[in-house]
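Continuing from yesterday's entry. The apo prediction looked reasonable, so today I'm repeating it with zinc ion included to see how the binding region is handled. Same sequence as before; SMILES copied from the compound registry.
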Amino acid sequence: MTDSYGKPHEAPPNEKRISSLSPETAIHKMTCAHCQQDWIYLFRRMDTGERFHLCPECESVWLEGGDLRLDTDVYLSEFMSPADPGREWEVIEPADQ
Ligand SMILES: [Zn+2]
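Holo prediction written out below.
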């Protein structure tokens, strides 16, 4: 997950937050079915309390109970449909399993 170096315009605004994540908290240490670049983590929306699975690398989202083995067509920005686009990471936090 370090291959984004050299492309600063694509650097995610979430690197500080995901640096606090460790593989020990990943869901069954399951690799993202979409990008295979990171583990899938359980996150929670702070505004609604809704829990969902997220790949921090490509921001793919799976609803809780969904099949994590399948590629996804839902992304964090679509899932959140935020009032303030680009601030998705400010209203979610890692959730306890
Ligand atoms: Zn991914």
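Comparison notes:
- Residues 26-94 form one domain.
- The first strand starts at residue 26 and ends at 31.
Will overlay with the apo model tomorrow.
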